[in-house]
Design brief:
The protein is of the alpha+beta class and 185 residues long. The protein has one domain: Gcn5-related N-acetyltransferase (GNAT) (Aminopeptidase), CATH 3.40.630. 29% of the residues lie in helices and 24% in strands. It has 5 helices and 7 strands, in the order βαααβββαβαββ. The strands form 2 sheets. Strands 1-2-3-4 form a 4-stranded antiparallel sheet, sandwiched between helices. Helix 1 crosses helix 3. The radius of gyration is 17 Å and the shape is globular. Bound molecules: coenzyme A. Coenzyme A (COA) binds next to helix 2, strand 4, helix 4 and helix 5.
Length: 185
Amino acid sequence: MGMGSGGTTPRFSGPTLAFSVRPLREGDAEALAAFYGALSAESARFFEPYKDTSVAAMREVVRRAAEGVDLSLAVLDGDGRIVGHIFYLDVSKDVPHLGIGLLDAYHDQGLGSALLVYLIGVGRHVLGKQTIGLTVLKDNRRAFHLYRKHGFQTVRDVTFRDKDDSYEMWLRFGAAKAEPDAGGD
Ligand SMILES: CC(C)(COP(=O)(O)OP(=O)(O)OC[C@H]1O[C@@H](n2cnc3c(N)ncnc32)[C@H](O)[C@@H]1OP(=O)(O)O)[C@@H](O)C(=O)NCCC(=O)NCCS
C-alpha cells in the first residue's frame, strides 16, 4: 500500500478508485433496490430514506429524480454497480435535506467525506441555497462526526422511529441566518 517516502497513500485502492457519480435514470430501479437490499442491518437502520425499497418503489424514486423533484445520484463502482445513493429531497424547499449512504465495504475510506463535500457544493452553488439540512440518528456516531466536521450544526431533536432519536442539522452558507420553524418538536 505504501507510496514511498513523501507520497500520499490513498485510503482505498484498486477498483474502488474507479468510482463515479451520475444522476439516476430510467432503468435504475432494479439496481437501486438491489443496493438497498445489500446494506447491512446496521446501515439500513442508519440510512432508511424509504420504508419501501421494492423495485416498484424505486421506480418512483427514479421518476422523482427524472422530473427534477429530487436531485438523486447513483454512486457506481468501476463495473457500474450501484454502491451508494446520494440525494437532496425536494430541491424546491428553502432548506432541502440531503442523504448519503454507501455499501458497507465502502465505509471508512474517505468516500463519504468526498461525496458530502460534493453535495455541499451542489447545494450551495448549483441549487443556490443559503441553508441545507439533514437528519441523523443520534447513535450514528460516524455520520454525526462527519457532518459536524463539515460545518453542520444541530438545530433540534426530531423523531424518526423513537421519540427524539435523531438530530436535525443545518449548514448555513448565507450571511442572513435562517431559523428553524417556530414550535414543532
Ligand atoms: C456515513 C457514511 C456515508 C460515511 O461515509 P464513509 O466513507 O464511511 O466516511 P469517511 O471515511 O469519509 O469518514 C468517516 C469519518 O468518521 C470517523 N468515524 C468512523 N467511525 C466513527 C465512530 N464510531 N465515531 C466517531 N467517528 C467515527 C472516521 O474517523 C472519519 O473521520 P475523519 O475523516 O475525521 O478521520 C457511510 O459510513 C455510510 O454509508 N454509513 C451507513 C449509512 C449511513 O449511516 N448514512 C448516513 C445516514 S444520516
